[in-house]
Structures are given as C-alpha cells and as structure tokens.
Amino acid sequence: MKHIVTVQDVVTAFADFMEPTAAELDAIEREMPVILADVELLDAHIVTLDRTPTELDNRRIRRARRRALAARVALLNRTAPASLPGGAA
Predict the structure, then answer these.
(1) Which of 3, 43, 53, 76 could make an S-S bridge to 48, C-beta 3.0–4.6 Å?
(2) Residue 61: what are its φ and ψ, rounded to 5°?
(3) What does each of the 89 residues of the chain score in pLDDT, given as a tens digit?
(4) Are 59 and 67 in contact (CB under 8 A)?
C-alpha cells in the first residue's frame, strides 16, 4: 500500500517549475485587450439568457462584438510583422 505522503512529495516536487515564464506573462499581457473584450461580449450575452433581448441589449451585443473583433485585429496587426519570415507580406 502506497502512502499519500510519498505521492504528494513526488507531485509537489516540481511546483517551483510550474510558474509561468516571463515570455508567457508577456503574451498574456499582449492578449489582455482581447480577453477583456471577450468577457464584455460574454457579459452582454449572459444578460439576455433569461429574457427576450431588447433593442438596447441587441445594441450592447453588437457593440461588444465589434470591440472583440477590433481587439483581435489589433492583436494580429501587432504580431503579424514579427511572424512573417523574410519580410514577405
């Protein structure tokens, strides 16, 4: 019979290495406008789950969708030149 303590030592032995790297934190920071825009869009949809959407709700959803798309385009425009090899467009 194996003791849980010995298994726990093996599992938590690598806990220090499980922290995000600086590059991963930078990537999250770059993607934060997209994340926040998606949360706003999700909030707009959640409001309408238990009722019929009003015209104001529909406007809020459209506005949030446009912001989410604009945030994605802005992120792609910032990262696209770095990802194209040889400067090809």
Answers:
(1) 53
(2) -65, -45
(3) 666 555 555 555 556 667 889 999 999 999 999 999 999 999 999 999 999 999 999 999 999 999 999 999 999 998 876 655 665 55
(4) no
